[in-house]
Write a structure and sequence with these properties.
The protein is α/β, with parallel strands linked by helices and about 325 residues long. It is built from 5 helices and 36 strands.
Length: about 325
């Protein structure tokens, strides 16, 4: 049962129920709530924090130094907010959610479930992270969500909790508005998704992949490193590394993306020659024909995850 402490903040401090640094500023009508009448879990508020009116802090919440929290936000039981973070108005940070340092979470965003977020992320307004998986057989599994560092997740995006193992976004990703990342999706580092992409469950997206607007990816698909999906692409087969895919097929190498990753024209040509030489073979056999190419590790990692039919590569 939830009990709102009837006492004033000074009284709660005197009782040891709230530990607050003298430099922190807490509005008069901020509420403090405890899970039972024993009031055992202390709420801690660090140096130079600013907590605006209407906010509710639940038992065991830990607000580190220099955190700013807007009006009417809820900080759940046992939640951890890292230093120098900014949380907007009317946000919900759920029970036991862990938010690292220097994150910005804009107004009306909801981060709940078993979510762990790293540092220096920018979360836009009306984002939902950690909600129950959209899975008809195990809708309440609610397994972890992990988000790395230096990501941008724009307004109205959704990242669902895992149904079986883990939903994960790496570091240095840019996820644009209205994109949906479903349960058990793994997004590696440096991935870009334009607006309104829909990623079904159990998809694995390798590093430096780039999605145009409105892409749809079938469940259990694997998108290789450095792949470029043209806008509106519908993906129903696994796509090997470093290719450009649109209108339902592979067209050529993603030369622009490969250049941006620091590879030379000579390295790009070597990959093109390898793909063309081995287009008629399974990729696993083609790997034996050139085991020292710079792309070797990425193709091997792709093959380890791929269990579906692979796109035709004869058009490269």
């Amino acid at each position: 049962m939830t009990n709102y402490a009837p006492d004033t903040l000074p009284s709660l401090v005197d009782q040891g129920l709230v530990v607050i640094d003298a430099s922190a500023e807490v509005a008069q009508n901020v509420q403090f709530s405890y899970s039972d009448s024993s009031y055992q879990d202390v709420i801690r508020i660090g140096k130079n924090c600013r907590i605006a009116s209407g906010t509710i802090l639940y038992s065991g919440a830990l607000i580190n130094d220099n955190v700013q929290i807007g009006h009417h936000t809820v900080i759940g039981t046992g939640a951890f907010i890292g230093r120098n973070s900014v949380i907007g108005n009317a946000c919900v940070i759920g029970d036991d959610v862990h938010i690292g340092i220097e994150n910005t979470i804009q107004h009306h965003s909801v981060i709940i479930g078993r979510t762990e977020m790293g540092d220096h992320n920018e979360i836009g307004p009306f984002v939902t992270i950690g909600t129950e998986p959209q899975h008809p057989r195990i809708p309440h599994a609610h397994q972890p969500v992990r988000i790395g560092n230096n990501n941008v997740i724009r307004e109205y995006c959704s990242v669902h909790g895992s149904a079986e193992d883990l939903t994960q976004i790496g570091s240095d990703c840019y996820i644009m508005a209205y994109t949906c990342i479903n349960h058990d999706v793994i997004v590696d580092d440096h991935v870009t998704m334009a607006n309104n992409c829909n990623i079904a469950g159990y998809v694995h997206i390798k590093h430096h992949a780039n999605f145009g607007m409105g892409c749809v990816v079938h469940q259990y698909s694997v998108i290789g490193a450095g792949v470029m999906l043209g806008m509106g692409s519908i993906v129903t087969k696994d796509i090997p590394p470093y290719v450009l895919f649109y209108a339902g097929q592979v067209h050529r190498l993603n030369t622009v993306g490969i250049h941006r990753m620091g590879h030379s024209d000579e390295e790009i040509q070597a990959l093109r020659d390898w793909y063309r030489t081995n287009a008629a073979l399974p990729l696993s056999e083609g790997m034996a024909n050139n085991s020292d190419g710079w792309w070797h590790e990425d193709v091997n990692l792709f093959l380890e995850k791929s269990h579906r039919k692979i796109c035709d590569l004869s058009t490269i």
